[in-house]
Amino acid sequence: MNKKFMGIILFCGIILFTSFMSIGKIYENQKAYKNELIRFHVIANSDSPKDQALKLKVRDEVIKKLNPQFEKSKSLDESREIIKRNLGLIEEVAGTVIASNGYDYDVKANLGEVNFPTKNYGSITLPAGEYEALRVVIGDGDGANWWCVLFPPLCFIDMENGLTDERTKEEMKSVLTKEEFNMIYTEKKQEFPLKLKFKIVEVLEDAKEKINNKLVMK
């Protein structure tokens, strides 16, 4: 082999090694910051325009009801307790909205681990995986969902406000380490590389889960 060819192989090897190190770092850090967030998930009865509109009305009233308590919350544990002691109230508020709009759907609120796909929140990209979340399921829960981050309290930021992106970053920085924040924050020009890395991590996690399931079955 000539020196030029060896140089190309060495260069490619360095690139691959660096990429895998970067992906490994993302994999480890995303485990950490997933434990620092609580998401809010509202699932509509169906994808019909009326059911989707109802979902947003339920969302608005639940957020409005919880806002005063979450504005005072200073920690993940405190926010978790607020949710737990208000699950009945959340169902009551949602049920009232549903009934006042002429529907008789059941509604169920619970706090637990929920699997999410990769989602963007302004300049913040949250990778796919399991997150702790407050779920409000309307009726059959077969419709498209709406979501936000409940802690830190990003749900209560006006998404039409031009300062939303800056406020979002500040709220995230308040609960994440600098390294964790840098893993999920991306400028527009960096968006595709970050999403690609998250996708690779997602594939690796799926493969790991399948292998573990096979071992359990044996």
Outline:
This is Stage II sporulation protein R. It holds the Pfam family Spore_II_R. It is globular and about 75 Å long.
* Secondary-structure class: alpha+beta
Mean pLDDT: 74
Which residue ranges are poorly predicted, with pLDDT under 50 across at least 5 consecutive positions? 158-163, 187-194
Shape: globular
Widest sheet: strand order?
2-5-1-6
Quantity of strands, as a count = 6
In DSSP terms (H or I, runs of 4 or more residues), the helix count works out at 7
The amount of helix comes to: 55-70%
Biggest sheet layout = 4 strands, mixed
Termini separation comes to 47 Å
Give, in order, the helices and strands.
HEHHHEEEEEHHH
Q: Approximately what portion of the residues adopt beta-strand conformation?
A: 15-25%
Rg result? 21 Å
InterPro entries: Spore_II_R (IPR014202)
Protein name: Stage II sporulation protein R
Pfam families: Spore_II_R (PF09551)
Overview of this protein structure:
The structure is a single chain. With 218 residues, this protein is an alpha+beta fold. It has a domain at 33-175. 58% of the residues lie in helices and 18% in strands. Helix 1 (3-34) packs across helix 7. The longest helix is centred in the first third of the chain and has 32 residues, at 3-34. It comes from Anaeromicrobium sediminis. This is Stage II sporulation protein R. InterPro entries: Spore_II_R.
Layout of strands and helices, then pairs:
Elements: H1 3-34, E1 38-43, H2 49-72, H3 76-85, H4 87-100, E2 107-116, E3 119-121, E4 124-126, E5 129-138, E6 145-151, H5 164-175, H6 178-184, H7 191-217
Parallel strand pairs: 1-5
Antiparallel strand pairs: 1-6, 2-5, 3-4
Helix pairs in contact: 1-6, 1-7, 2-4
